[in-house]
Specification:
heterodimer, A: alpha/beta, Rossmann fold, FAD/NAD(P)-binding domain, Alpha-Beta Plaits, 5-stranded parallel β-sheet, 22 helices, 36 strands, 31% helix, globular, disordered C terminus, B: mainly alpha, Fumarate Reductase Iron-sulfur Protein, Chain B, domain 2, 2 domains
Amino acid sequence: MAEIEKPQVNETSAKTEPAPKKIGVYLCRCGGNISDVVDLQSVAESLKGENVIVNIQDYLCSSAGQDKIKSDIEKGKIDRVVIGSCSPKLHLETFRGMVKKAGANPTLLEITNIREQASWVHDKEGKESVNSKVKGLIKGAVARMGSIEPLVPLEKKLVNRTLVVGGGIAGITTALEIADGHEVILIEKQPYIGGHMIGLSKTFPTMDCSQCILTPKMVAVHNHPGITMHTQTEVAQVKGSPGDYSITLKHSPRYVDIKKCISCGACTRKCPAGAIFLPFAQAVPQAYIIDMSKCSGCGACVKICPRDAVNLDAKEETSTISVGAVAIATGFEPIDPSFIEEYNYPAPNLLTAVEFEDMLSAKSKTGMRLQKADGSFPERVAFVLCAGSRDFTGKGRKHCSKVCCIYSQKQAQLVKKMKAEAQAWIFYIDMRSAGRRFEEFYHHTQEKGVNYVRGKVAEIIPKQDGTLMVQYEDTNLGRKGREIFDMVVLCPALIPSAGTKELADKLGVPLGDDGFIEEKHVKLDPVNTLNQAVFAAGCVLGPKDIHDSVTEGMSAAHKVSQFLGKGMILIPPEKPMILECNGCGDCVKACPYNALSLSGGKAVLSPLACTGCGICVPACPIKGIEIRNFTRSQLKAQLKAMLEDAPGVVVFIDPYAYAAADIAGVNRKQYSSLVRFISLPSIHVLDADVVNAAFEYGATGVMLIEGTTDEKLNSRSDDLYKKLKKETRKHKKPLRYSHIETAQYEKLTDLLNVFASQAGAKAEKRSRKEKGEETPEEKE
Amino acid sequence: MQKETIIPESKDIAFRDLIIKTPGGKNIPTCMQCGVCAGSCPVSHEMDYTPRQIVRMIQLGLKKEVLNSNTIWICTTCFSCSVRCPRGIYPTELMETLKPIAMKEGIKNRNTKFDKIFADVVKKNGRASEFLLISKYSISEPGMIKQVPFGLELMSKGKLPLSIDKMDDLRELDSIFGLGEKTGIQEKTQSKEKPPEIKENDSDSQEAEK
């Protein structure tokens, strides 16, 4: 790895005489989103004694708002900026870019989140308490801004190679689009690429055959000189950091050498157990596979193979690759509908739509014939939509699976096409045919004589003779009905494919509460994730059709190319500085990323390996290590100012849990306005010094909330918490640790409410005690 | 009853808001009219409005029609609808909520009459008496005259005993009835959900109390 180390900021700069700092505070009304709840004027007035410039704008992110800040900097009125607006996730980069252009250091601009963390989540509380919170937050931010130092981001060279995970249509598109400019490694869990799409019959709304349009792309992937393809492969382990990952892949055995196999089929003809096969003619890679559950190990295939391609002793293998970016395209899987008791799945002639497609696709085992369990053609077929979707009871999934309305109509058309007299019924709740050419498709299906019933099916009862009784309410008539069908097709909820969470955790990418990958921004950054080197495309971001998967694949490829094209990655400069060292080596032992080493009896940091987690800070026995801009004194300054006027509950929060608080804000989940977040790169920066200071300055309680899925960090949280608990016991105020991942925003708000009320009750009890009986208090 | 045009005057928003606050009513605004309740209901074909339609009418505040419907009295409380509703509405509990409101509002039809007579008989005797129930109901409901021959036949076979089996001590029963009348329809004051778990990994809720 080529490491380019920029000169670090002078180690002693934190100690030099502070030059007079000119801080500008800019508050955003956000078109009423903030100002309807928070009295910004009174917030501005509360800063009167602070020697800062305060300005309020309607939309700070607009060009007018940005120009105001820019001109203030250019005129020399200010050189440091505190912004009170929406979450920094949205506009921090915008504002910092502007500040840079104006000639100031971007790290000297910080955003205090008074929308997602105040006006959107406390609007049911009294204005007084919200105002008091915002005043505290801004004061804290001003104090912090006065104490931090200008830093320059470090640069690291990128590895010019991308890993695309998933060989469905989204992954194939992503890989092909990247591969013309950058090297790609494409991995697929299944033995063949093509994903769900190769298992489809016709595709809506054009009714062209799926394999006809997909196979050329599969072959192109196989032949592209810039793409290395591995099937039966999964990500086992991820090491390194964004831009420079070392990823271990796990390859399951196929027992047939892909490079040697010419798919002549001699082995299949010889195999007595039917264990060696090619699942379909167009399969890519064109290589046979052995189903070991059927293989007797007789060795007939080994002997007959003219190319010596069969190896019955093949074992699972691993390999390690080095990549700069990762694109996740792991797609969906249908939910198993057997949890819906009243539908009695599985039963003969009761299928899922995926099983229906299989019968008519390239992979068909029935010779592309639609048939019942007894081999005959189903004369009456029902399609049951929303099987497990749109369910808010916790049994199914909340989301709409989006494609079922249209594909069920396509399947109904296929039934009518195969036999005009056959009946096809579609049971739907809302016929969602938004999108170009889809309403016409709906209309066309109606013309074909498909019967539509508006009503969610209540029960499916399999009968002795293989038919199925469907009970429902025709909600347009308000009348209950029963029908007998030869075949019933369930349209199951589409959910993220198995293993999505494990992969996302390894890459440090948060998921939404629906299990799909969380986009960096729902609307404006739809294929970026919260990890700058990880991108996503297709159904792993939510159910969608082929058209949209392809569009996202292309977008992700563009984003990957853009990212790799820069050649360099900027990494945050908030790294440890070693101010004093006695060479004990405790920090070296503590660092989970091997970023510290001893050289000449002193600890030395390699900043590019360092993630800035801060574990070394409390590890140093002589308090010689501080994280830049998160030093003990800087945090204390912020705490002091924040709690000066009104007490509150201090919540130290890491970026992943911070994202959960943002989602809570977007969903307007109310929680106590006593809560004051302090954003940290990780909670492991903290030691008893800071927590004790929080209590001394008036915090009624302190919480540590961690959202990272990095085991190297959260496996140590227990010890950190116990240590802090012990060392802050003298204050007799509640301290709590909690692990909350990004998706668990409801858990977060519940927890904050409970903790805030407990801390409040405890504080009240204490003050009563102090007033009443004072003597026994002193002991202990 | 005659179905009416929905006009602003027929909507009673206070009624809607009241029902939403009762147990089982919280999720009424989220009903998507899928009809799984009516499809699951073993007796929805006997109802003048299906449970789905009742929920819709509550959303609109059509108090008069809701309270006059026979739906609320026909419900057998089998809970199929409540188990299957994808939006977490409990139509069963809803019906139980609407019954006392209909009574209080003085709705008069054969269903409310029957219920009232049944309650009166139990209150007076501590036990249900089929004879008293049927005879009292027949007097108030003229259509029942047609059933007299059937009643006589039952009586002749000893299936409708004239003797009234009365509880010895009615005081405890009285207190139950009194309690019911006093409480009546109650708004949901406290969330039904469990309070959030605070126990977090190594959490300290007990320790913190020390």
